[in-house]
Amino acid sequence: MSVQTNVKYDVKDPALAAEGLRRIEWADRQMPVLRLIRERFEREKPFTGIRMGACLHVTTETANLVRALKAGGAEVALCASNPLSTQDDVAAALATEHGISTFAITGEDNVTYYKHLNAVLDTRPQLTMDDGADLVSALHKDRNDLADQVIGSTEETTTGVIRLTAMAKAKVLKFPVIAVNEANTKHMFDNRYGTGQSTLDGVIRATNVLLAGKTLVVLGYGWCGKGVAMRAKGMGANVVVCEVDPLRGLEAVMDGFRVLPIAQAAKEGEIFISVTGNINAIDVKHILAMPEGALIANSGHFNVEINLKGLQEVAGEGRRVREFVDEYLLPSGKRVYVLGEGRLINLAAAEGHPAVVMDMSFANQALSAEYVVKNHAKLKKQVYMVPKHIDDEIARLKLKAMGVKIDTLTPRQRKYLNSWEEGTE
Ligand code: ADE
Fold first, then answer.
1. What is the pTM for the complete model shown?
2. 31: Cβ below 6 Å to ligand 1?
3. Does residue 3 sit within a domain?
């Protein structure tokens, strides 16, 4: 393994590296598309001499992404995009075995989180990769001097794309960004099947709750909400959906779910999961209305969806009753339980999305990074979609890896689709 010479790191325990290596290899077995990309990068070296800064969840899947970038010749520095999502064995393996400057410790406080983010920025990245836009935001707010050398960035998640689009609209964005989240091979799979399964995995690992027969309220019916609702239904929960968007509310009804305003759902639910991307989706007045023993979790990017500060004002600090479970005693005498400190439960209490789905998300990241390197001179300071040929190629490779064959259009069919003359016969 080629080891970068100037590697710096701050990880929990370098001795965890051997376990991290084994788990990274396990994930790699489920990531055939990214592996093919890594093998091509190894041959073609598209990132030779490029310094990359990445702020991502430090997981086995992310490890395989940064391996691919490094194989392509990049010098990579990595920090966590959430204080609770780091897998310490992976961080150790990346730092000590893979030659990646890594700054991430699970449970790090806010000061350390931003110290780590700044350690990545200290490497003066020319290309950045974000999950939630914290790196780009810090580059614009606190480290403005470094922004001019950045040729572009990629963004993994819905929340980050919303932030970056607002920056572009306000004309403050200093370099082009590729919105990886918007690729079909990303959000239709990662957000739906990844969040759907891993969120319930997180809730179950945290609490050992039985979902069958429970009333489970899903806040938000975007791709993530659809996935959570679908999987919870499959496990026998009575799913209620809360929405603010009429089209999505309607879609949830037609998909067979009960749709209620949160004020009503709060009284009926036993498990609450927010995936809205917005602040205070579960507010104090809703928590006060919940039944005894309600479980409250968030799987949206930031820990703002549950008004935890407001809850602590009425119920005090809370008591840890089990790893990832804090009990709050309400003035009424009822108890409610907040999971994973309101941070994304799938990465806090479980392992995030399975590798098989991150394969496509991170194939998009790797190919979008290559696209930025090749095309940055032509790109404006805007948020761009992942080019369609990249999205299509990832779907094609994934199907191939799964051994699934599909049909091709006949010349007659192709002609028919391109003509306007043919109609009723
Ligand atoms: N986001 C959700 N799941 C993830 C995973 N397993 N690795 C990295 N980022 C993620």
1. 0.95
2. no
3. no
Contact present, 197 and 227 (Cβ < 8 Å): yes
Is residue 170 domain-shared with residue 24, that is, in the same domain?
yes
Average pLDDT over residues 205-217: 98
Per residue in 329-352, pLDDT (tens digit) is 999 999 999 999 999 999 999 999
> CATH number of the domain that 232 lies in?
3.40.50.720
CB of 86 closer than 6 angstroms to any ligand 1 atom:
no
CA 240/CA 253 separation, integer angstroms: 10
- 251 and 105 fall within a common domain: no
Is residue 57 located within the same domain as residue 141? yes
Yes or no: say if 296 and 320 are a contact pair by the CB < 8 Å rule: no
Mutation pick for ligand 1 pocket among 24, 31, 60, 62 (CB with most ligand atoms within 8 Å): 62
CA of 261 to the centre of ligand 1 (A): 30
The answer to whether residue 208 sits within a structural domain is: yes
> Percent of the chain beyond pLDDT 90?
97
- In whole angstroms, how far apart are CA 326 and each of 268, 281, 317? 21, 19, 9
Beta carbons of 327 and 189 less than 8 angstroms apart? no
**Pocket lining: 160 vs ligand 1, CB cutoff 6 Å:** no
With cut-offs at 50, 70 and 90, classify the pLDDT of residue 5.
low
Question: Which residues have a Cβ under 8 Å from the Cβ of 114 and sit 6 or more positions away?
Answer: 138
Give the number of C-alpha atoms closer than 13 A to the C-alpha of residue 166, restricted to the C-beta side. Answer: 8
The answer to the question of residue 415 being in a domain is: no
Give me the chain's average pLDDT, please.
Answer: 96
Is the same domain home to 63 and 181? yes
pLDDT, tens only, 347-400: 999 999 999 999 999 999 999 999 999 999 999 999 999 999 999 999 999 999
Domain count, the chain: 2
Are 141 and 211 in the same domain? no
Whether residue 250 is found in the same domain as residue 182: no
Regarding whether 181 and 214 lie in a shared domain, the answer is: no
Determine whether the shortest distance from the Cβ of 130 to ligand 1 is under 6 A. Answer: no
Domain that holds residue 393: 9-186+353-402
Q: Tell me how far the alpha carbon of residue 58 lies from the centroid of ligand 1, in angstroms.
A: 8
Residue 303 lies in a domain: yes
Query: Residue 181 has what pLDDT?
Result: 96
Backbone angles phi, psi at 362, to 5 degrees: -80, -20
Question: Is ligand 1 within 6 A of the CB of residue 57?
Answer: yes
Q: Return the number of other C-beta atoms located less than 10 Å from residue 26's C-beta.
A: 11
Same domain, 290 and 380: no
CA of 189 to the centre of ligand 1 (A): 12
The answer, yes or no, to whether any atom of ligand 1 lies below 6 A from the CB of 62, is: yes
Enter the tokens of residue 258. 């009960």
